[in-house]
Design a protein that fits this description.
Layout: H1 2-5, E1 15-20, E2 26-30, E3 36-37, H2 38-45, H3 50-69, E4 72-73, E5 82-86, E6 92-96, E7 103-104, H4 126-130, H5 137-153, H6 163-172
Antiparallel strand pairs: 1-2, 3-5, 4-7, 5-6
Helix pairs in contact: 3-5
Length: 183
């Protein structure tokens, strides 16, 4: 929440308040968003038209570019953390959600310790799979690439039945060619 609060991009969900209840439970209050995350969009409609997918990713890149400039690595980018709204003029608006495991430069940990494995397996870079502590902005670039692949094909570049299989495929194999799913 504190990391997201540092960002001013209209493509980041606004953090209105962060604190701790009397019980010690942390809380975060975000702006109310009406729309759908991109994972739901792909699940309901299948592959996204190429111009739309490009627009969504460019907007996400705007937010992530600002984060990287401020030393923040998201570490959990995926379609479920990209929220699609509609501007008053009908234009699409993407908001990046969930900076809960973000790593802030100069900090040894995010909300969750950086030595723990974190992120969503299908979107984790090879480096993130081996050491969450050493992850930098390139992990977010990888995750955005996987996200774009999924938006335009309704599949991920590496298909696996388990996290162990996924790690092996990412480290040793080439991704499934895009043309397999979308000529």
């Amino acid at each position: 929440g504190q990391a997201a609060a540092l960002l001013q991009s209209k493509h980041v969900a606004k953090v209105l308040d962060v604190g701790q209840l009397d019980t010690g439970t942390p809380y975060m209050i975000l702006e109310h968003l009406a729309g759908s995350d991109l994972s739901s969009v792909v699940e309901k409609k299948g592959a996204v038209p190429l111009p739309d997918a490009a627009e969504y990713l460019l907007q996400a890149c705007d937010a992530i570019g600002e984060a990287h400039a401020k030393g923040i690595v998201h570490r959990d980018l995926k379609p479920a953390n990209l929220f699609l709204l509609t501007e008053p003029d009908g234009a699409p608006l993407i908001k990046v959600l969930d900076f809960g495991i973000a790593k802030v430069s100069g900090s040894e940990q995010g909300l969750t310790g950086t030595s723990q494995g974190m992120g969503s397996g299908g979107y984790m870079s090879p480096e993130q799979m081996s050491s969450a502590k050493k992850v930098d902005h390139r992990a977010d670039v990888w995750a955005l690439g996987v996200t774009l692949y999924e938006l335009v094909t309704a599949h991920r570049p590496f298909d696996a039945d388990s996290l162990e299989q996924l790690v092996t495929k990412v480290l040793r194999e080439q991704p499934t060619p895009l043309a397999t799913y979308r000529p």
